[in-house]
């Protein structure tokens, strides 16, 4: 398995762990809209992480073959974020908007934490 795929699998596990805590928070606390917003944003963030991993693999394969390199899918990741915010704005009684935004940042925070853990734990 490539290093990129290994990182993706590890980061996906971390995100699923966070999602399980969010689901427990949604089910057992009175802050349901906040946790539902975190769930929506984190699910979209996980989708963006998968998209970024897939596009990066395609980018690497194109470079190895000497082909023309296409975009890394920034527009599609932004469209996913806009969709999540639109859902939160359409149903404000169910989703807390700020929580959705924090959820959208989850994969990037997980990537940074995973990088630091892997860097300092390998020494």
UniProtKB/TrEMBL annotation:
Q: How does it sit in the membrane?
A: Multi-pass membrane protein
Ranges that cross the membrane: 12-28, 34-51, 95-117
Which Gene Ontology CC terms are recorded?
plasma membrane
The source's superkingdom equals Bacteria
Name of the protein described by the UniProt record: ATP synthase subunit I
The protein's predominant localisation is membrane
This protein's species is: Cytobacillus dafuensis (Bacillus dafuensis)
Q: Where in the cell is it found?
A: Cell membrane
Q: Which Pfam families match?
A: ATP-synt_I
For this UniProt record, the keywords arranged alphabetically read as follows:
Cell membrane, Membrane, Transmembrane, Transmembrane helix
Q: Which PANTHER family match?
A: ATP SYNTHASE PROTEIN I
InterPro entries the UniProt entry points to: ATP_synth_I (IPR005598), ATP_synth_I_Bacilli (IPR039072)
């Amino acid at each position: 398995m490539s290093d990129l795929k290994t990182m993706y699998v590890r980061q996906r596990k971390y995100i699923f762990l966070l999602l399980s805590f969010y689901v427990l928070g949604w089910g057992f606390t009175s802050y349901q809209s906040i946790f539902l917003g975190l769930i929506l944003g984190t699910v979209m963030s996980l989708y963006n992480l998968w998209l970024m991993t897939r596009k990066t693999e395609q980018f690497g394969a194109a470079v190895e073959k000497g082909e023309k390199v296409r975009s890394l899918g920034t527009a599609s990741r932004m469209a996913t974020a806009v969709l999540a915010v639109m859902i939160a704005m359409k149903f404000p009684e169910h989703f807390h908007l700020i929580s959705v935004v924090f959820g959208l940042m989850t994969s990037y925070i997980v990537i940074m934490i995973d990088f630091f853990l892997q860097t300092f734990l390998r020494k």
